[in-house]
Request: fold
Amino acid sequence: MAEKGVAQVWRRFDSIYNLIGTHCSNCGTYYFPPRLVCPKCRRKGKLEEYKYKGLGKIHTFSIVRQAPENFKRQVPYVVAQVQLDEGPRLTAQIVNIDPEDVKIGMRVRVCFRKITEYGEGGIIVYGYKFEPTMIVTGHE
Amino acid sequence: MSDRVAIVGVGMSKFGELWEKSLREITLEAGMYAIFDADVQGKEIDAISIGNMSAGRFTGQEHLGALAVDMGGLGNIPAYSVEAACASGGAAVRQAYMSIKSGEHDVMLVLGCEKMSDVSQSEAMDTISVASDMDWEGMFGATFPALYAFIARRHMMEYGTTDEQMGKVAVKNHYNAQFNPWAQFQRALPLKVVMNSGMLADPIRVLHSSPITDGAAGLVMCSEERAKEFTDNPVFVDASTQATASLALHDRKDICTMDSVVLSSRRALERANLSIEDIDVFELHDSFTISEIVLTEDVGLAKKGEGGKLVDEGITELKGEFPVNTSGGLKARGHPIGATGVAQIVELALQLRGDAEKRQVEGAEKAMAVNIGGTGATSIVHILGR
Reply:
């Protein structure tokens, strides 16, 4: 299917590997996913690349128990909206934790993981997931 | 320019898993019922508008405008195929409304259709996901139920909405569907069964979710002037509005409020010169039961956070003060994606005509439909009146 093309993933490597979004130097707003136009300033906006620190907290989440083909092998998995410290929110999986222990407000940091495989002979997509910061630092 | 736009005929195919019928058969069926109901001749119809989300992926067929004209034997009239994910049906109704209002067309056939059972359940899930932001939500494993689970979990945390309240919406809508001969599930559903149903994406349970459905719905719409040629009992479109919000749910400041719904419903009430208390019957897009709760708040039936309480108090039940989803809603009437927005209007037109039989809301004079696409990125509101 269309969304499983090689080029379609390849052209977004910067963002999905390195969490590169955009920052509008006119109004100061940070965007992730990167935007092509600043919705606040439109033609007056000046968007430049910005690499996120990869730190944030869980805004909301769900434990997915029924998934489409590409994610079937991962169920149950946690998917969440992560509020990045710079402001924007993104959607990503939460790993390195028992799904039942995930909570709203929990601090998380970015990690690099396999996202999915596009079937037999299809490409393997890598990119960002998030893990609880306390697992890495050893405290809350 | 036409003053008002009238609905003079309504029709539906059966909703359900219709293994023996193809997309073109169900679409034709709904269209013909609408035409017979209006008692309009084929030669009077001067255009078709058809709503569909993803026939290309569900059945391998696109170009539905031409398909509908051809199958209906309607010759060479123009046809407009419109798409707005789960709001495609509402978009088709609005397309016809604007065409007639502008004077470009006089009598139009409006169709909505979706044939979902020709693909496997996991392919269907994949296709439904394309209504979200596929690059930044779907690709990372956020299924459609998971996105509504994001809303539900925040709503539960911020306002204390409960699993039981989300369950009661399903119970209410199934109760209503018992009296709707076109509904997919014409049977009651005990709360206990809902609350014990498996999790799709916590806290969304299987029985909080609308099903996979095949179905089509149709309307005949025309200018007020022409309406009397076809019926003594026309229903009028008092307002048709539409608004947009961010495609991805994560880009919204408050994920428990659909700004698109707030804006389009306020504007519709303004245009119709009505307040929310004047509306007698509602069809609100309950793709998941949490969305009915959120929508009752966003149209102004309840304060933000009190949509769950509204259900507890029975206000939205068939015999309540403000009945919501008398047809059974998406949950129990079924949710053939592109057909839903048209089916909502069919239900409300029947209610206003007094033809809703056992689910009739006595003396209904004003009705509102809210049809949303994705997680509320598109909202289309229609207010109907007598």
